[in-house]
Amino acid sequence: LGEVFTTNCAKCNKKQGQDTRAALRKLRERKPQLFLEIFEKYDAGSKHLDGFLIWLKKK
Protein backbone atom coordinates (compact mmCIF):
# COMPACT_ATOMS: atom_id res chain seq x y z
CA LEU A 1 0.00 0.00 0.00
CA GLY A 2 2.83 2.38 0.68
CA GLU A 3 3.90 2.38 -2.95
CA VAL A 4 0.31 2.74 -4.14
CA PHE A 5 -0.17 5.79 -1.90
CA THR A 6 3.09 7.48 -2.83
CA THR A 7 3.09 6.74 -6.58
CA ASN A 8 -0.66 6.65 -7.27
CA CYS A 9 -0.34 3.04 -8.40
CA ALA A 10 2.15 3.98 -11.14
CA LYS A 11 3.43 0.40 -11.47
CA CYS A 12 -0.05 -1.13 -11.53
CA ASN A 13 -1.44 -2.49 -14.77
CA LYS A 14 -4.81 -1.16 -15.91
CA LYS A 15 -6.87 -3.82 -14.09
CA GLN A 16 -4.87 -3.49 -10.87
CA GLY A 17 -5.28 0.29 -10.96
CA GLN A 18 -9.03 0.03 -11.48
CA ASP A 19 -9.48 -2.54 -8.71
CA THR A 20 -7.24 -0.65 -6.28
CA ARG A 21 -9.01 2.62 -6.98
CA ALA A 22 -12.45 1.02 -6.49
CA ALA A 23 -11.48 -0.67 -3.21
CA LEU A 24 -9.86 2.44 -1.74
CA ARG A 25 -12.79 4.63 -2.82
CA LYS A 26 -15.19 2.33 -0.98
CA LEU A 27 -12.97 2.29 2.10
CA ARG A 28 -12.74 6.09 2.08
CA GLU A 29 -16.52 6.48 1.65
CA ARG A 30 -17.55 3.88 4.24
CA LYS A 31 -14.75 4.21 6.81
CA PRO A 32 -13.05 7.60 6.31
CA GLN A 33 -11.24 7.55 9.66
CA LEU A 34 -9.81 4.07 8.98
CA PHE A 35 -8.74 5.19 5.50
CA LEU A 36 -6.81 8.11 7.00
CA GLU A 37 -5.22 5.90 9.66
CA ILE A 38 -4.02 3.43 7.03
CA PHE A 39 -2.79 6.24 4.78
CA GLU A 40 -0.85 7.80 7.65
CA LYS A 41 0.72 4.43 8.49
CA TYR A 42 2.17 4.06 5.00
CA ASP A 43 2.81 7.75 4.27
CA ALA A 44 3.93 9.44 7.48
CA GLY A 45 2.81 13.04 7.50
CA SER A 46 0.42 12.30 4.61
CA LYS A 47 2.77 14.10 2.21
CA HIS A 48 1.14 12.44 -0.80
CA LEU A 49 -2.49 12.66 0.32
CA ASP A 50 -3.56 15.53 -1.95
CA GLY A 51 -2.13 13.91 -5.08
CA PHE A 52 -3.52 10.54 -4.09
CA LEU A 53 -7.03 11.93 -3.62
CA ILE A 54 -6.87 13.48 -7.09
CA TRP A 55 -5.85 10.08 -8.50
CA LEU A 56 -8.62 8.39 -6.51
CA LYS A 57 -11.29 10.66 -8.05
CA LYS A 58 -10.28 9.84 -11.64
CA LYS A 59 -12.35 7.33 -13.56
From TrEMBL:
It comes from the Eukaryota. InterPro entries: A10/PebIII, OS_D_A10/PebIII_sf. Pfam families: OS-D (PF03392). This is Ejaculatory bulb-specific protein 3-like protein. Signal peptide: none annotated. SUPFAM superfamilies: Chemosensory protein Csp2.
